[in-house]
Amino acid sequence: MLLLSLVSVGLVAGVYFAFQVAVIPGLARTPAGTYAEAMDRINESIENPVFFAAFFGALVVMAVAAAQQWRRGNRGAALFVLVALGLYVVGFGATIVGDIPLNEQLAAAGTGHAEAAVARFQTPWLAWNVVRTLASAASLLCLGRALVLHGRSH
Is residue 154 scored above 70 in pLDDT? Predict the structure, then answer.
């Protein structure tokens, strides 16, 4: 469960990072209508079982991993997993309260009002994405530490 936690959080953090450094900067080089249409298609596409398994599953597997480490008496590893879980929840929350509502606002604006909608979208979306990227990366680091502590206990 600890390794599965590390993999699932790593995958999600990678998605956020890719948006920060490649997807959004690439879209910013396109006309506003293209930007809005592409973001809408991306947001539709990301709602799939594979992404959801990592995105929601990370919460579950980290909780199970923390409980397992605690029951085995590996309190240090358990605490790092709990911190990782808390950090991941911060990123998860940024997605739910920040990026998703902004995605919905951009989609609702349509391509007819794309220029103004994209202008209102970009800066706050990237700010929320920085939060979730950093929180997930920090979560990943904590899980790595937990894995090291787990290894030392054996």
Answer: no
